[in-house]
Amino acid sequence: MARRRSIGSHSRYVAIKYSVPVRDLGSTVEEAMSKVTRQVKLPTGYHIDWAGEYESQKRSSKRLMIVLPVTILVICLILYTMFQDFKWVMLILANVAMAPIGGLVALFDHAYALQRFLGGGLFWRYSASRCRPASSCWSTSTSCARGAKRS
């Protein structure tokens, strides 16, 4: 959302609202900001603010860039006081860093098991329901309405 306002306490503004259904919000707003900066020349006394979800996302990102390293440092200090050895601290933090990889492997394994349970993937079921010419079929047991075979 862009706002136009003057410097005084009683200022007017024009709110422009748009939603982003397909792309991510951050890159879309940054692209819009660069285009507006290049193409729109404001008269003296006018100002553009980009607010809304984009502004909230930027504030959250800045806060997270401070909170995350402090949290990791506190965790390191707690682990060091427990084990009295930096080797164990690094080993535990390496395990924490690799946990998302294990989660992804489990997700893909679960998807593979589900695919096997359903008797083929979702893409196979989608393509199997479409009619194709008889020359491209590997199975001739079923046929479609216009003489084409279903694969």
Describe the protein:
With 151 residues, the protein is mainly alpha-helical. Among the domains are: 1-51, no CATH class; 60-104, no CATH class. The protein is built from 4 helices and 4 strands; from the N terminus they run βαβαααββ. It has helices at 25-39, 53-83, 86-118, 122-128; strands spanning 2-4, 48-50, 131-132, 149-150. It has a two-stranded antiparallel ribbon. A two-stranded antiparallel sheet has the order 3-4.
In a nutshell, what does this entry contain?
It contains four helices and four strands. The chain is mostly helical and 151 residues long.
Mean pLDDT: 77
**Can you write the helix and strand succession as a string?**
EHEHHHEE
> SS-based structural class?
mainly alpha
Total DSSP E strands: 4
Largest sheet: 2 strands, antiparallel
Compute the number of helices.
Answer: 4
User: What percent of residues are in strands?
Assistant: 5-15%
What global shape is seen?
A: flat
What is the percent of helical residues?
Answer: 55-70%
Rg result: 28 Å
* Low-pLDDT residue intervals, each spanning 5 or more residues: 2-6, 123-131, 133-146
- With strands numbered from the N-terminus, the spatial order across the biggest sheet is 1-2
Q: Terminal Cα separation, in Å?
A: 50 Å
